[in-house]
Amino acid sequence: MSAPIPSNIHYHKQARELELTYPDGDSHRLSIEYLRVFSPSAEVRGHGGDDAVLQVGKKFVGLKNITQTGRYALKLHFDDGHDSGLYSWDYLWWLIQHREANWADYLRRLEEAGASREPLGIEIKQL
Fold first, then answer.
1. What topology is assigned to 8-113 in CATH?
2. Which of 80, 84, 95, 122 has the largest CB neighbor count within 10 A?
3. Rounded to two decimals, what is the model's pTM?
């Protein structure tokens, strides 16, 4: 079965979230950081095997533009300059369905690498 196709796509700039609304009325919001670190591009995912590149420092990334590619995908233009990789409807649906597990795995990999979601040079202190 193919993934549903969104009937509406809205970028919430201040919240840095992409909202996908489907014909059945279901609506899902994905953070831009999540979309960026799970980019389907070869630059992020690699070319197969274990050559994926862990994305760090993407906590505050946003979008500059969204373009539709044919009837099957979106191209997201991130404000950090990344704009390769097509987010097919199937891939976006997979990201929605596996969001919790994907995010937990990403945080685990960051911790194992001693890396951070925070951009380099920025230290956030909790008061």
1. NE0471 N-terminal domain-like (3.30.2020)
2. 95
3. 0.90
